[in-house]
Design goal:
Elements lengths: L2 H14 L3 H13 L4 H7 L13 H14 L4 H6 L7 H14 L1 H8 L11 H14 L4 E6 L12 E4 L4 E2 L6 E3 L15 E8 L8 H9 L6 H10 L8 E2 L22 E5 L11
Parallel strand pairs: 1-5, 1-7, 2-4, 5-6
Antiparallel strand pairs: 2-3
Helix pairs in contact: 1-2, 2-6, 4-7, 4-9
Bound molecules: S-adenosylmethionine.
The site of S-adenosylmethionine has 22 residues, from strand 5.
């Protein structure tokens, strides 16, 4: 796959995933970058690079531009980004200028893989826990591989609302309303005794630069996802261990600490399929 196809393909995907703005932005970049010197230099690394799909170059690029908007670094972009509207021509002109003015910023941003944190991924984990606990009641330890900012580790603080049923958190900080077929297994008493996460490149939501990264990976016209991150970030205080989860069992549970036997359920999970390479 070449750079142009990667952008046009991702544009189509964004359209089906409810982001008309991202779809338009990536289509315009895909259609125009070949005549833009800065873009050619920025994307050179991915020409004839078989990792172009795994690296999700279009999403890295969109995150870089979004960061310029969030930080109010480029006012031309602010004028054409949601909630404002602009014609295709005005959007591409602003993007084109931003590429030229912030080449080094965008170059640096392109180094890192997108780390999308979407708390609705916690919904099936919560539903599965309800099912397991309906069979055997016990305290639970959560451990997440590829935890990124660790938002899924707060799943007991999220309520889950679907058309037919709901799961109400005792002390909610967010509500998940994903598309859901069927009923959620009946709500059980969920007692989480420990939380742990590992990530090869953890993002600390309380750190200003990491927080900007988290927001930049949301899609600019999906305000609800951005709002959820803003809502949750101050509550996520579990420190995510920096390690490669593939290197042995990084998250270990001592079932018999100090020789004492504890009945405890362990829920290991990973938020989504991921193809990821450490930035070198
Ligand atoms: C798409 S994010 C998912 C974040 C979070 N789990 C969620 O569902 O919202 C994938 C995460 O997996 C991490 N990751 C990928 N390969 C890894 C590995 N070998 N060891 C540890 N973390 C890894 C990445 O750094 C990234 O933060």
């Amino acid at each position: 796959m070449n750079v142009e196809t990667a952008f046009l393909e991702q544009s189509r995907m964004c359209a089906t995933l409810g982001s008309p703005f991202m779809s338009r932005l990536l289509r315009l970049i895909g259609q125009n970058f070949a005549h833009h010197d800065t873009c050619i230099r920025l994307f050179k690394r991915w020409e004839k690079n078989s990792r172009i799909i795994d690296d999700v170059l279009p999403l890295r690029t969109a995150a870089a531009l979004h960061a310029l908007v969030l930080e109010k670094i480029n006012h031309g972009l602010l004028d054409v980004y949601p909630p404002n509207t602009a014609s295709d021509q005005a959007l591409w002109t602003a993007v084109s200028v931003a590429f030229k003015q912030h080449e080094q910023f965008i170059f640096d941003w392109l180094e890192s893989s997108p780390q999308t944190n979407e708390i609705c991924r916690a919904a099936p984990v919560l539903a599965s826990l309800n099912y397991c606990l309906s069979r055997v009641q016990m305290p639970v330890m959560l451990s997440e591989l590829g935890a990124s900012a660790g938002f899924n580790l707060l799943l007991d603080r999220y309520s889950l609302e679907t058309g037919q049923t709901s799961h109400q958190a005792a002390d909610p900080i967010a509500t998940m309303s994903p598309d859901w077929m069927g009923v959620i297994p009946a709500q059980q008493n969920l007692h989480i005794v420990d939380r742990a996460g590992v990530d090869i490149n953890p993002l600390n939501p309380l750190d200003r630069k990491d927080y900007l990264r988290l927001l930049s990976y949301t899609w600019a016209d999906q305000q609800d996802r951005m709002d959820r991150i803003k809502q949750i970030a101050p509550h996520q205080t579990t420190q995510i261990e920096k390690a490669d989860a593939a290197e042995g069992a990084k998250l270990t549970l001592q079932l018999w600490p100090g020789g004492e036997l504890h009945d405890i359920g362990r829920a290991d999970f990973h938020g989504r399929w991921v193809s990821w390479v450490h930035p070198t």
